[in-house]
Design a protein that fits this description.
The protein is mainly alpha-helical. About 60% of the residues lie in helices and about 0% in strands.
Length: about 70
């Protein structure tokens, strides 16, 4: 279920970064942060969510080191 939510966020944000006037940063930030707080989030999904934060131009938050 989390993977589907993350995929939907990725698709939406990839479209919106090309149309900055449509971005509601507070909304998308809360969506990303909410998913980051979910228990059982895989390291790969954490990296994907942090990459989405980067797309929005948000400052990087501390992220646990991920081993391959």
């Amino acid at each position: 279920m989390l993977k589907t939510e993350i995929e939907q966020l990725e698709k939406a944000l990839n479209v919106l970064v090309h149309r900055p006037q449509l971005i509601r940063r507070d909304y998308w930030t809360s969506q990303i942060d909410g998913l980051l707080e979910q228990p059982g989030l895989s390291p790969q999904d954490q990296l994907r969510l942090h990459a989405l934060r980067d797309l929005l131009g948000l400052p990087a938050r501390e992220c646990a080191a991920v081993s391959p």
